[in-house]
Design a protein that fits this description.
Strands 1, 2, 8, 9, 10, 11, 19 and 20 form an eight-stranded mixed β-sheet that branches. A seven-stranded mixed β-sheet has the order 6-5-14-15-16-13-17, with helices on both faces. The protein has a three-stranded antiparallel β-sheet with strand order 3-7-4. The protein folds into two domains: 233 residues, 3-Layer(bba) Sandwich (FAD/NAD(P)-binding domain), CATH 3.50.50; 78 residues, Alpha-Beta Plaits (2-Layer Sandwich), CATH 3.30.70.2450. A hairpin with a 3-residue loop joins β15 and β16. It is built from ten helices and 21 strands. α1 packs parallel to α4. Helix content is 33%, strand content 27%. It is α+β, with helices and mostly antiparallel strands and 389 residues long. The structure holds flavin-adenine dinucleotide.
């Protein structure tokens, strides 16, 4: 059947937009359906890792991203009372020796501009997807459309996942965080600083435009945080004064994790947060979704995508599992409270950060250079179906 599109992408978040750009570049007929009409209000993902910058290079966008963001080359790790060491990206084996800090809203804006308005329908909510032997039917507030494949990039509350019967149990951690972006008067410049204290963690990352993000661990979920809580907890735990008057936004989050057993069913495919969820602590969610998008674009441009979808599902699932585990481990370590555990953590981190080779590994680790299976070329070739060679 001649369909309206080769691929319909449900959700114009960062992952859906990147996938659309990659498919458009290969001449595919695509459409992104996005229910939002306004940009997101909070900055969410801010850390773009070197592997993601390489994907953006394929689109000729890396320079624009780098010019808009702040290069974070060092992350200083503080214990209860002293500096324990530094995770540096200055000597990682990549041409981009930094993490790029850029608010998600800007990432979305650049990708959207690159894609072009004619490829995105905004204010268009998808209400159902049905699949047949040779096509999918998508029902949306803008009417019915057909496509060879439908890709659910509709975030962690994905309805596409539900319609395809791919849901996985979601585990919610009993850990809570509050974050706010502030006008930066610390003098930290482009440095990141994390403080692991007896009473809870504080993380601080530079943002472009003279701003800085502060994240504090809280004892309970903060649906209605008292005014000034980020400043107050930061002062109590680190002695650093950040003025409430300088705060420009605030949001709270309670991390969760899940990983779908399979990332596709027939012609319906999941990508990004729709397929997996991980703690934002560690800054990997969007980057993992970007790598999904790169892999999936290759699969969808193959002469027989059905042959390669099991490979996409298997290997990107493994990659996500690895990121989920790292995020969980890092969050667990950072949120241990009390004097004894804090002392043990200080000892462990000092050891890891002050021993040359181990310290070097930390830079590679947080730059996500060690997450496997980003592209088809990086999966064991013996696992590919014979007819794909
Ligand atoms: C506080 C915080 C900090 C973070 N920091 C980082 C970081 O530094 N680095 C990092 O890599 N990740 C980070 N993340 C994670 C990152 O924000 C997510 O992984 C990323 O947004 C996932 O992108 P996505 O496109 O898959 O989904 P989303 O961003 O959730 O986009 C989904 C889109 O689908 C649309 N949609 C949903 N349902 C429908 C429908 N039925 N019809 C049409 N449209 C629909 C939504 O409106 C939305 O625009 C952070 C997250 C949080 C909460």
């Amino acid at each position: 059947m001649k369909t309206d599109f080769d691929a319909i992408i449900v959700g114009g978040g960062p992952v859906g937009l990147l996938l659309a750009c990659l498919l458009k570049q290969q001449g595919k007929r695509i459409r992104v359906l996005e229910k939002r009409t306004q940009p997101i209000a909070h900055s969410a993902a801010i850390g773009i890792t070197p592997p993601s910058l390489h994907i953006l290079e394929k689109l000729g966008l890396a320079d624009e991203f780098i010019a808009a963001g702040t290069k974070v080359r060092d992350c200083f790790v503080h214990g209860q009372s002293t500096l324990l060491g530094c995770v540096t990206f200055r000597d990682i084996p990549d041409e981009h020796r930094f993490i790029l800090a850029l608010p998600q809203v800007t990432t979305i804006a650049i990708l959207q501009r690159h894609l072009g308005d004619e490829f995105i329908a905004t204010g268009c909510e998808v209400s159902g997807v049905e699949q047949f032997d040779d096509h999918c039917l998508v029902c949306s507030s803008a009417g019915e459309l057909t496509a060879a494949h439908v890709i659910g990039c509709d975030g962690w509350r994905s309805r596409v996942r539900e319609w395809a019967g791919l849901d996985a149990p979601v585990h919610t951690y009993d850990l809570h965080f509050l974050m706010g972006d502030f006008i930066d008067r610390t003098g930290f410049g482009s440095e990141a600083h994390v403080f692991f204290t007896e009473t809870g963690p504080v993380e601080s990352f530079p943002l472009p435009g003279g701003r800085r993000r502060w994240i504090v661990g809280t004892a309970t979920p903060m649906d209605q945080p008292p005014p000034g809580l980020v400043s107050e907890l930061t002062r109590q735990r680190t002695g650093i004064d950040i003025s409430v008057a300088d705060q420009v936004n605030e949001s709270a989050f309670t991390p969760h994790r899940f990983n779908c057993g399979r990332y596709y069913d027939g012609r319906i495919i999941l990508c990004g947060d729709a397929a997996h969820g991980m703690s934002p602590i560690g800054g990997q969610g969007m980057n993992t979704g970007f790598a999904d998008a790169e892999f999936l674009a290759e699969v969808l441009c193959h002469r027989d995508p059905a042959l390669l979808l099991p490979v996409y599902s298997r290997f990107r699932r493994k990659a996500a599992q690895s990121a989920i585990f790292r995020a969980e481990w890092g969050m667990w370590l950072g949120t241990r409270k009390g004097r004894a555990l804090s002392l043990l953590r200080d000892l462990l981190l000092r050891f890891l950060l002050r021993h040359g080779r181990l310290a070097q590994q930390m830079g590679r680790f947080y730059a996500m250079l060690t997450i496997p299976f980003n592209t088809l070329a990086r999966v064991p070739q013996t696992t590919l179906p014979p007819r794909t060679a």
